[in-house]
Amino acid sequence: MVDQLISARALVMRDLEATGVASADVVSILEDAVSERRWWAEQWPEGAVYVGGLVAQDVQDALLERVGRWPLCTHCADDDTHPLYIEPELGGPDPHWVCEHSGTVIAPLGKLLNG
Question: Which of 15, 44, 57, 64 has the most crowded CB, counting CB atoms within 10 A?
Answer without folding.
Answer: 15
